[in-house]
Amino acid sequence: MEFRKINKILIANRGEIAIRVMRTAKEMGIKTVAVYSTADRTALHTRYADEAVCIGDPPSNQSYLLGDKIIAVAKELGADAIHPGYGFLSENADFSAAVEAAGLVFIGPSAESIRQMGSKIAAKETAKKHNIPLVPGTEKAIQSLEEATSIANAIGYPILIKASAGGGGKGMRVVNEAKDLQEQIEMAQSEAKSAFGDASVFIEKYIAAPRHIEIQVMADKHGNAVYLFERECSIQRRHQKLVEEAPSACLTPAVRQAMGECAVRVALACNYSGAGTVEFLVDEKLNFYFLEMNTRLQVEHPVTEIIVGKDLVAEQIKVAQNEKLSYSQLDLHMNGHAIELRVCAEDPMNNFLPDIGTLTMYRKPQGTGVRVDDAYEEGMAIPIYYDPMIAKLIVHAPTREMAMDRMIRAIDEYKVNGIQTTLAFGKWVMQHEAFRRGAIDTGFIGKYFKPEQLKVEDEGEALVAALLGGMSFENNVNTSKSASSNSEMRVEAGIGSAAWEKRKGLR
Question: Which residue among 20, 115, 211, 296 is the active-site one?
Fold first, then answer.
């Protein structure tokens, strides 16, 4: 397989991931092209790229999901490749195939790999063939209520109904009793049809209080694949992650190796190339079960980059150029602990509902071991059309405890006004005793979080601010009185300011 040099990349995405890809590309001497909707005309990624082209109106289906238009722009501007980022077209097999058919390089896996892993049912069939542990449940989409009832009774309630296509918690329902089965199946099918155009659903045994742990894999086009250890992603709301860390606080070296080797087998089974993530559920006894494979770069990839010392975007580009991996599994080692907080324009005190507005203040934390991946600056507005995440706050330290403390410091330094964010929630997580001792699972928020806890903290901070403000006012008044008195004394003494300060010992 011949080396294929990439000289210009179009990034088919927006926001922080677009800038993230562009930064690595520039370091590699590769030109970049941004695409944007009219809502993103002044967005940072359009200014950071070497070239930028407007491709449509704000709704995603009129801009960032227009695969044919994006490909046309890439060809018109002489781009060699397209990087999809995550979300939008990143796991669209038809788009991957169209990019390749247009003579361009898709920086990601083949269309065949995406299709095989994009269907949860097909992915489970592949995993089963290669002896990957699976959660008990159906191997194919359920065809009738009678079939669903029989399966549910066999594996026992509670069960989980899941959409075969897509992710992000869409088309997912927990059923605790038989009387609710029909209604929940119909609701899951309706949501799946609306979100993904595919109403197929299947059934799994619902594992109470599991941990959500994923393995990062990297594979080239020459049959080489490695795992870059794990990320713990158990702090979630509505099946979507808010806090991720690497490594997990619970895995033993033996379990870590077993999970990593399983993830590599999944990647090799579908002839995977590039960066991918194999997700598992882990129970309290550290039994793990294959969940799905995400055939793209993950939002939380920075924590892996930090602990293994690899630029995953650079690795993606090298693989796309038909290069072999320059390292083996034995070359990879973990260094310290990293934690990521998704800073979202959401109100944790109102069920994490999205919040929009203008960033009247936006000051990022700095210092040792702190990284912020974002695409906003003070004065910018948060658009309503896209994902509410405005930044990723990542910290790194020698130990997990030090990383948690560093995250608290960084959150305190992060100043955002004009919208509600998840920053205060992130601080609450870092301070919670269960999180600090690593006793977490996907039910953490439902089990421990109460919105009023943030309100109490806000009121406490407001009280401190008021007291400090009062002290400052009093000091200013006293200073003013003193200055006024000094001025009056100078006048009465008939001497100038410099002479007065010299006499009083102020100079």
Answer: 296
What does each C-alpha distance from 109 to 52, 161, 291, 367 come to in angstroms?
Answer: 25, 28, 19, 36
* CA–CA separation, 501 and 366 (whole Å): 40
Question: Taking the alpha carbons of 438, 439, 440, 441 in that order, is the dihedral positive or negative?
Answer: positive
The two beta strands, 274-282 and 159-163, are unpaired
- For tokens 């119909």, the residue is 186
Residue 57: CB atoms within 10 A of its CB come to 13
Q: Which CA distances in Å does 132 have to 208, 265, 444, 467?
A: 21, 8, 27, 59
pTM summary value: 0.83
108-134+208-335 and 342-445 have identical folds: yes
- Where are the domains positioned within the chain? 8-107, 108-134+208-335, 136-205, 342-445, 458-503
Contact 49, 68 (CB under 8 A): no
* Cβ–Cβ < 8 Å for 343, 428: no
Q: Which CATH class is domain 108-134+208-335?
A: alpha beta
What one-character-per-residue DSSP string does 110-158 give?
Answer: -HHHHHHHHSHHHHHHHHHHTT--B-SB-SS----HHHHHHHHHHH-SS
437 flagged as catalytic: no
- 97-141 residue pLDDT tens: 999 999 999 999 999 999 999 988 789 889 999 999 998 888 788
Class of domain 136-205: alpha beta
- Architecture per CATH, domain 342-445, reads as 2-Layer Sandwich (3.30)
- pLDDT tens digits, 485-500: 444 333 333 334 443 3
Q: What is the CATH number of domain 8-107?
A: 3.40.50.20
d(CA 372, CA 314): 19
